[in-house]
Amino acid sequence: MAVDPWVWLALVAFIGALLALDLLVFHRDAHEVTLREAAVFSALWVAVAVGFGGVLWAWQGGTAAGEYFAGYVVEKSLSVDNVFVFALVFSYFAVPAVLQYRVLFWGVVLAIVLRGAFIALGAALLASVGWIVYVFGAFLVLTGVRIARHAHQEIHPERNPVLRLLRRVVPLTDDYRGSRFLVREGGRRLATPLLAAFVMVATFDLVFAVDSIPAIFAITRDTFIVFAANAFALLGLRALFFLLAGTMRRIPSLNVGLGLILVFVGGKMIASDHYKVPIYVSLPVILGVLGAVALVAWLRGRRAPGGEAPA
Fold first, then answer.
1. Is 308 exposed, middle or buried (0-12, 13-18, 19+ CB in 10 A)?
2. Cα 52 to Cα 127: distance, rounded to the nearest angstrom
3. Three-state SS for 285?
4. In sequence order, what are the beta bridge partners of 191?
5. Contact 36/242 with Cβ under 8 angstroms?
6. Model-level pTM greater than 0.90?
7. Which helix (H) or strand (E) holds 189?
């Protein structure tokens, strides 16, 4: 679908306004995010994303809206992996609970910018190099199999080359200095552990983008829809983190569900030159896999001692 430049500008301005509202109004003062607050904001961000899908439906029709919703669900599902890794990063750097939202906020801002660049690059490759679609598809299938076979990956922040480079360029302080990323002491500029945690969050999100961008391109080649689905999924990532960080390990078969979704969209991309799976098939398949994961979690929770299902 051809989108005028002013529509792109309107979307970017709307996303910027939402970020500003979140930072300057809802979370102006640093505080520990409660489970209830995370649930409320998760619902709010989902409502905003669904509302945009409704506008897209009225403007471009059901096919475009269906592609957007399918892409949004895929991106939202894959962001669950981000939650687990971010929790490990915060634990490694002992980030105080009151400062975690600030790190995630600026991480999301940078992620939206980087995803935009990745989307432009991916669209250019798909338009100019026809066979790249098979590379993307095969990569997604292999990634899906790897995720399905391993519940969680070992993450070692101290081995991250970007963090090593940061420590060489800017010395780190031993403790936190409020919500500041950089401080000046004794005539030297020093980085706080908060900046190190932000760098780790940003680099890991860049790695996750390698999976998520090809996955949504398997659903639609429309860059406007791809960017919108990514942006709205990322906007809700912070609230999702505080909602799920403490319960992810208690959700059985989550890795299998995410792996199956990646295998499905990868196979869809590989077959796209011969058969295009319609969106009214793709969206129910993705939702069905996620529903099956939720059902398994609920059933296992009922059989567990105490009969309490995972949150």
1. exposed
2. 27
3. helix
4. 172, 182
5. no
6. no
7. strand 188-191
